Amino acid sequence: MDQYILVFTSIVYEALPFIVLGVILAGLLEEFVPQQFIAKVIPKNRVLAIAMGGFLGVIFPMCECGIIPIMRRLLRKGVPLSLCVTYVLAGPVINIVVLTSTFAAFNYTPTAEEGHIFGGPGNVVLLRAGFAYLVAFNVGLLVEWLSRKPGIELLSPQVTRGLKKDIKQIGQSSPVAANNNDDDEGRVKKTVMERLNNITGTALNDFVDIMAFLILGAILAAIGRGMLQGTDFSDTVKANPALAILIMMGLAIAFCLCSEADAFVAAAFPAAFPAASKMAFLVLGPMMDFKLYMMYTRVFRPRLIWTIIAAVVIQVFVYMLLLHYLWEDVYDFFQQF
Amino acid sequence: MAHFHEDSETYYLDQLCLVALSGAFGVVCLTLYFWQVPMLDLMLGKQFHAFVLASGVLLLGMTGIRAVILWKSAGRKTSSLPLVHDHGHGPHEHHDHEHCAHDHNHEHGHEHAHGDHHHDHSHGHNHDHAHDGHDHDWAPWRYVVLLLPIMLFLLGLPNKGPSVQAASIPVDLTQESIGYSTLIAAGDPIQQLVLATVLNADSSALAEPIRFLTLKNVAGDNDNRDDWDGKWVTVKGQFAPNRQHDHQFTLVRFKIRCCGADAVPLNVPMVCKERLQGLKQGEWVNVTGRIRFQKSGDSFITVLRVPNLQAIAPTGPEPGFYLE
After folding, report:
1. Which of A20, A54, A321, A334 is most buried, with most CB under 10 Å away?
2. Contact yes or no for B42/A6 (Cβ under 8 A)
3. Chain A CB contacts of B295 below 8 Å
4. Interface probe, candidates B59, B258, B299, chain A, greatest A C-beta count within 10 A
């Protein structure tokens, strides 16, 4: 029981500061950032916008927990859903903090039998960032295609509540979605107290909303960790890379680790686990785990959540399998140059 | 007519719970940072402590502002009552309204039938709450869930680190066997006496303290390994018995990056000349012994050779708990 409680409380109190930061930013975004500004900044070309979304984490580095409340506000401001989804998936990986910690985690003195995985920590970083971007970009394209289909609602009522225009337009194909809390033209100047009221009201409501689901996710993570503790998969995975990849993907979902720390955990896995399975752990973990799933329910409808999950999981598995079988050839090819 | 949000009762109750719980989290964060540091050390790496402090301050700040705004809003609600209806009578005191077809209990929503009254509902709506994108439905289950970490904190949990698992790192006892075989084979009593003295030499009094990480990593230091070989040291860690050998055990420390959930155990195997007894799994101990190195594949691992049970002394946990 002590172990469960430790894992549960660790996850909650580690995520809490980032959620507080996220909801405050979300409140400020709601109050001060006009929808017209968003419309100006986002490229009209949707593919370009999705491509841009994958790199937003470099400019706005945030833990995956803190991104959720920000994304809710961005969606209400008219940011395309596909761009938001790409940011949510890629942002927790493609940022300077996570990539630095990934480098540090794999920058160890290798044993003679194992050697550096993927030829060194620099390659690990490049592969992690590259695959995360590829997965996020493709999921963004898929979400964009889905959002153009008529009659399909993708966003949770918690996101669209209170918006006057047709909610089907929100975050979907139209580049500028309606957000009627943003009637900037002719708006009466607000007092400081009114602004504070709106910011704190938004922030605290988001805080409670998201924390409740984070806590539920942390409970699942603690139970999952407790069940897996002491289980040694080394013998199981030795001769079966596909199974190894699947096991590591399952562990990534169950462990619910922060993206800054998961590289150290992955690096500590026994050498019996193929390098590609460790990469699967690194790519999938920040995109999908129990706590993220619970928080996604506050933004997306189940159809979209499961679409994202399926797209991410299938892509990660296929890419890692290809990585396992093709890496040596590709690496040798590039070594020639 | 000034009236309030339709579900004003649940709205204020909802906001009250929101303020109370957010404030509670703020208080918990500040208490953890200032007064419950060991508990915070168990949960988070030191680099996150400042974030917890900042969260506490921000949460308390926001809840304070929100509480003041709600207080004023509730005050306005009270002072704006009684309602002014267009019956032709003025401020709403509770005079006789039998002729009215509706209920004039304005404490709760607008459930009354209006009959032939026409209430003007075009009001300058000074909403004291932000509608934006959050749910005004009454969902008390969220508050029950949020109570869980707060209740755990009040119970003083967590109060233990990660559980220590019994480890079975095979230790090569060949060196000692060779030594004792040589002793037995030596025919000369003087030779035997010298050999016995060397084999059983206990220079533990000269042991110097060593950091656990240094002890663990010195095996990989090709340049200095010979300098460390045979040195007497004292190191602190958690006791983990070896289930297969009652003379062997492992000293464990945990290393974290961010939080207790990513804690990774580091083990140094140890061999004691006496049978291990009276020690509990996970107990903090100071161990004095002699450093030896053992081949493990292509590399070396550190093994500590402990002369007797007295060299394993129970002690308190390390401040900060985790290795840095």
Report:
1. A20
2. yes
3. none
4. B258
H/E segment holding residue B285: strand B284-296
Nearest to B16 by CA among B73, B55, B61: B73
Burial B239-263 (b: 16+ CB within 10 A, else e): bbbbeebeebbbbbbbbbbbbbbbb
User: Dihedrals φ, ψ of B303, to 5°?
Assistant: -125, 135
In the DSSP assignment, the letter for residue B260 is: G
Q: Do A6 and B149 touch (CB under 8 A)?
A: no
The helix (run of H) or strand (run of E) holding residue B59 is: helix B49-80
User: What CA–CA distance (Å, rounded) separates B108 from B95?
Assistant: 18
Q: Map residue B259 onto helix, strand or coil.
A: strand
| Helix boundaries (H) for A33-63 | 35-41, 46-53, 56-59
Chain A residues whose CB is inside 8 A of the B131 CB are 161-162, 181
Chain A residues with beta carbon closer than 8 angstroms to that of B21? 208
Cα B234 to Cα B304: distance, rounded to the nearest angstrom: 10
| Distance of residue B103 Cα from the nearest chain A Cα, in angstroms | 30
Q: Would you give the distance in Å from CA A14 to the centre of its chain?
A: 16
The predicted pLDDT at position A337 comes to 64
Facing A212 at nearest CB: one of B59, B142, B264:
B142
Q: Which of B132, B222, B281 to mutate against chain A (most A CBs within 10 Å)?
A: B132
> What whole-number distance in Å separates Cα of residue A13 and Cα of residue A19?
10
Is B25 in Cβ contact with A16 (below 8 Å)? yes
- pLDDT tens, position by position, B237-280: 999 988 888 888 999 999 887 788 778 888 899 999 888 888 88
* Rounded (10°) angle between helices A302-335 and A121-147: 140
The pTM score is 0.73
Chain B nearest CA to A49, separation (Å)? 24
- Residue B220's identity, in one-letter code, is G
Burial of B282 (0-12, 13-18, 19+ CB in 10 A): middle
| Interchain pair B19, A204: CB under 8 A | yes
Q: Suggest the residue from A11, A16, A289, A290 to mutate for an interface test with chain B (most B CBs closer than 10 A).
A: A16
Taking CB atoms and an 8 Å limit, are B145 and A212 in contact across chains? Answer: yes
Predicted ipTM > 0.90: no
Locate A287 and state its tokens. 């995109």
**pLDDT on residue B87:** 44
A58-67, B182-191, B215-224: which is most confident: B215-224
Q: Which stretches of chain A are DSSP H helices?
A: 2-32, 35-41, 46-53, 56-59, 64-76, 81-90, 96-106, 121-147, 157-160, 192-228, 234-237, 241-255, 262-267, 275-284, 290-296, 302-335
What pLDDT is recorded for position B212? Answer: 92
The whole-number mean pLDDT for each consecutive block of 10 residues of chain A, a chain of 337 residues, reads: 88 87 84 76 87 86 80 84 92 88 78 68 93 96 87 74 52 43 54 86 88 85 75 71 91 83 79 87 92 87 93 96 85 69
